[in-house]
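Q: Convert this sequence to structure tokens.
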Amino acid sequence: MENNKYLKLLPQQKKQKWLLLLMLSSTILLLTTIASFSSSPQLLYKLHGNKYHFQQVPLFVEPKLENSPFSPIHEVPRLAYLISGSAGDGVSLKRALKVLYHPRNQYAVHLDLEATAEERMELARWVSEEKVFAEVGNVRVVVRSNLVTYRGPTMVSNTLHAAAILLKDIDDGESWDWFINLSASDYPLMTQDAQIDFFVTDILHTLFDIPRDLNFIEHTSDIGWKKDQRAKPVIIDPGLYGQQKSEIFWISEKRRLPTAYNLFTGSAWMMLSRPFLEYCLWGWDNLPRIVLMYYANFLSSPEGYFHTVICNADEFRNTTVNHDLHFISWDNPPKQHPHFLTVEDYESMIESNVPFARKFSRDDPVLDRIDSNLLGRRADGFVPGGWFTDEGNASSPLPRFNLKNTTELKPGPGARRLKRLMNSLLLADDFNSTHCKMMPVVSKTKLLRRRSPLT
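A:
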């Protein structure tokens, strides 16, 4: 009887074991699925307010992560700006932000640690109390300020920091297309969305039809004198480890040029695509990190880091446009800093067809002329456009804005100038052959022979 009792229980035990195995395998399958979602370019849920939305997360292992999708051409683009400054730049930075502002764009503003705590707090207070910024929520103050040395790598790290902030927690449908780095001494020569006699949109309108993967970065492989004066010397930037700004210093030993990749150089001011910056930040390939560590000891690394990365990356080297979109007046040969622009440079700035110019002194009269003649902006106001009008009481502290009109674009004089520039760059016969072009290396022996009157 006892045996029969156990015999009767066997089917039930087998059933329980089968259920246990089924539950165990289901649990393993569930954990595997969750793990695959968390370590692949699949979409994860992310809580945002009271709603869930999808967010794509990067991989840090092979196979390579695919870039997040572009916004379609023929849709109004969105720009992301970094506007940075140092001690005494608070007023200029505020003016630049207001004149560059558009509700479709994203902004990060940064005063480095050389600025006083009072100046940085005043910037944060001003942004928080500006009604338009509070309503739209697209201006971010970098609260944890960085110490930035222009000639050192800290300027590169500050740029990457701002790009990471602008990529973080962006709602679906609001991802920006291009990142533009500016300083408080930069100023636009055309509107974001201006209304002078009729609605005009210059920068956004012109970028309407341009492929979103293009990177506007002035570059060359002909590093010339920079080889001996910047690439071979080893410098240390105290901004990497100190809290007080001080000059970089040199190490007596020099280094050889890299052979794992080719060096490129160019302008420190650029307009970079979102996929390229995702590549630099997320780093599914190790190239951006290796090059960043090399440029940590490179004099004036902002004039070489992004250029070297993009021209050595197979995915991006053919997306370059060799222009920095700036009007800058340099000495010949160029010194460390350009001339300050004045009213005497006004006509040359317009004829250049570029959207930005630098470098301006604080409240120089030429800025007022740009405001009145090119931007239609009143003192201390926003640039009027489809989303905003300053008609009526000019002294009113609050603008009248309509966020439903942010895509109402009609080209104006600035758009026509910028269109001419874009046509000259993108429709040039040699455009496809000039991406990251390697210049032939001329040996010193050949150079001497070429200069010799006997040959």
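The longest helix spans residues 2-38.
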